[in-house]
Amino acid sequence: MRRTVIMNAGDIERITLQEATERFIKHCKVRNLKPETLKYYNEDCGYFAAHVDAEYIDEVNHDVLEDFIFQELEQGKKVSSLNTRIRGLRVFFNFCAERDYMNGFKYALLKQDKEIKEPYTDAELKRLLARPRSASWVEWCTWAAVNYMVGTGNRVSTVLCVKVRDVNFSENTIQLTMVKNRKQQIIPLSKALKAVLKDYLKTWESNYDDYLFPSYEGGQLARRSFQDSLARYNAARGVSKTSAHLFRHTYAKNFILAGGGMAQLQCLLGHSTLDMTRHYVNIYGMELQKDYERLNPLDTFLKRAANC
């Protein structure tokens, strides 16, 4: 006799989307993922569950996800935002498929044009890096943070975790204890940034264990609060751009234009691979053509030979 269905099929446990999400988040906590990552996964799973017509996780398949993506696109959602959500959902679905809560399936990211974000210009940096003239501590703190980001290229999440003790003025180094790849890193402290931080630390009574850029209460400054302070700071100085991450692009661009090497930039930015570093080089590569003939060894040699 040909058997196509198992006996007692009704006894198989079916997991709701809510239950699957709870188990997934628990698994992520056991893996000691960062709070930001847990929040990201939780929001993605919750949003998906609230916008699809499926109660159980085993009802989710390629067509269900595609219908969800189509609805989001129809509502005008950005492709970049949707790809971010798809990445999170794929991790969730893989977790469920590995535990036989559902049948696994593959779903590719949506195709999108590479967006080139214009870094801060020299004129804008001149305004933003200028020493404050007011007695506002918030302005001084934001000023120092802007100088720090321009001088290090650190991610905002890393900047807000730096403590006073991490800055070694005698060794001219900064120890980064919270980076994206979770590997502690030591980066150089430039002469200009050293002067700025020393000037800034004179404006408040800091302790060894204090955050370098703290909140009003002295604790860790929230990312949203920092972004709001930066937006007000930039606007007050006549700069329309408000992105904190844009300072990272600005750092990479100016490092490349100054002749910095790709491998060195990779280490300074804390990239796990050269892929993202190469992306910066590709974006700003055309600007390397400025004064290229003046700097190119062949051109300079021929000019010297002609003058001999």
Word description of this protein:
This protein has 308 residues and is mostly helical. The chain is built from 14 helices and three strands. Helix 6 crosses helix 9, helix 6 packs across helix 10 and helix 11 packs across helix 12. The chain is globular, with a radius of gyration of 25 Å. The model has no long low-confidence stretch (mean pLDDT 86). InterPro entries: CB, DNA_brk_join_enz, Integrase-like_cat_sf, Integrase_catalytic, Integrase_recombinase_N, Tyrosine_recombinase_XerCD. Keywords: DNA recombination, DNA-binding.
Number of helices: 14
CATH homologous superfamily annotation of the largest domain: Intergrase catalytic core
Distance between the termini: 98 Å
Radius of gyration: 25 Å
Strands of the biggest beta sheet: in what spatial order? 1-2-3
Number of strands: 3
Structural class: mainly alpha
Q: Estimate the mean pLDDT confidence.
A: 86
Helix share bin: 40-55%
Give the SSE order as H and E letters: HHHHHHHEEEHHHHHHH
The CATH architecture of the largest domain is: Orthogonal Bundle
What is the fold-level CATH name, i.e. the topology of the largest domain? hpI Integrase, Chain A
Unreliable segments (pLDDT under 50, ≥5 consecutive)? none
Shape: globular
Tell me the number of structural domains.
2
Oligomer: single chain
